[in-house]
Amino acid sequence: MKKLSNKLSMTLLIILASTSCDNNSNNNNKMTTTDSSQTTKTGITKIDWGEHDGKKVHLYTLVNNKGTEVRITNYGGIVTSFISADNNGNKSDIVLGFNSLDPYLQSPPYFGALIGRYGNRIADAKFTLDGNIYKLAANNGKNHLHGGLKGFDKVVWDASTSSDNASSLTLKYLSKNGEEGYPGNLNVNVQYTLTDDNELKIEYNAETDKATPVNLTNHSYFNLSGDVSNTILDHTLMIDADKYTPVDTTLIPTGELKPVKGTSFDFTTAQKIGSRIGQVTGGYDHNWVLNKKGNEIQRIATLSDSSSGRKLEVFTTEPGLQFYTGNFLDGTIKTSDGKPINKNTALCLETQHFPDSPNKPGFPSTILQPGQKYHTVTVYKLSVSK
Ligand code: BGC
């Protein structure tokens, strides 16, 4: 997350990206002037970003007609940056990320990544399905977290692009039967689209040949001020949820759906994140049970930062939201320009089904059957108030 005061380097990167387009990328880009000193192209461009597992890794830059830029790599489907203007027209990056592949290969805690096959934790790294016990990797104490040792965040996805109405990047991955202990060959397809309304839309699709749990999400860490020297404690947040799922000491839900009313978990009206975080052991790292019913897409959360004027609205088809305040960030990891990424530097709003659902019959099911189509949609919509 780097403040983009140096517009020259930005412009150079964009030129580099533009000249590296291949047949996959659409070259019919319109010219858009975003401010007096910088000209960017709308559309999508691609540059080489290295290699992993013998496969080529690329960085894709999606630019809309407002000059907002989202960069995504096919390594882990990671959103590496989300650059937008604040209320003074100054651009900065509102997500944690790096400007090269190497730091991602050191496994930072899921910065910007696609998470699968199962977002969040599965207790004791096991579940029973159709009478069979499936053992998963215990990569978080005794529990299984975010798909295991080599989840979808650490694989190279096949990518294709289109720029018909808006810029889209489609990522595909076949998770083979037995991978990380999960049953069934799972064909996954995730599409990222940046619209001219400053929406980053993520559509997740999957099909399996054997019943399996599936719970896909994105793990972007947001700081709307665009500067990691600021924490997110002054941001305000609304979550449209009357209940949350309390957890045990290993962050596994107890199974209870607890009312938020009268607790530090009540974000039904916008609240400053820092105002009650001290009353929550370790900080917020919980799943909220969204009030929305059914699979319709609805706005479920709004995050605002008065210093930059930026507002991020989250829309989803999912029943849950993991709100995580970067509690385990401790300054060890540095940004690409050397700033420590400290506790509460950024927060995640992970749309999902509830943690440990495969072991919690009372939670909405996460089991995908052969012949069924997994399809969920989440939109992060950015705006700025003057
Ligand atoms: C989890 C946290 C975890 C973080 C990074 C979040 O989704 O809820 O407990 O530390 O991801 O791994």
Question: How do the helices and strands line up, and which of them pair or pack?
Answer:
Blueprint: H1 7-19, E1 31-35, E2 38-41, E3 43-52, E4 55-63, E5 69-73, E6 78-85, E7 91-93, H2 102-105, E8 114-115, E9 121-122, E10 126-129, E11 132-135, E12 144-145, E13 158-162, E14 167-175, E15 186-194, E16 199-208, E17 212-213, E18 217-218, E19 221-222, E20 236-239, E21 243-245, E22 258-259, E23 271-272, E24 285-289, E25 298-304, E26 310-316, E27 320-324, E28 347-352, E29 367-368, E30 374-384
Antiparallel strand pairs: 1-2, 3-4, 4-5, 5-6, 6-7, 8-18, 9-12, 10-11, 13-14, 14-15, 15-16, 16-30, 17-29, 19-28, 20-23, 20-25, 21-22, 21-24, 24-27, 25-26, 26-30, 27-28
The protein binds beta-D-glucopyranose (BGC).
Beta-D-glucopyranose (BGC) binds at residues 109-110, 120, 251, 285, 322, 324, 328, 348, 350.
Question: How would you describe the overall organization of this protein?
Answer:
- The structure is a single chain.
- Helix content is 4%, strand content 39%.
- The protein has helices at residues 7-19, 102-105; strands spanning 31-35, 38-41, 43-52, 55-63, 69-73, 78-85, 91-93, 114-115, 121-122, 126-129, 132-135, 144-145, 158-162, 167-175, 186-194, 199-208, 212-213, 217-218, 221-222, 236-239, 243-245, 258-259, 271-272, 285-289, 298-304, 310-316, 320-324, 347-352, 367-368, 374-384.
- It has a 9-stranded antiparallel sheet, with no helix packed on it. Strands 19-28-27-24-21-22 form a 6-stranded antiparallel sheet, with no helix packed on it.
- Mean pLDDT is 91; it is low at 2-39.
- It binds beta-D-glucopyranose (BGC).
- Beta-D-glucopyranose binds next to strand 27 and strand 28.
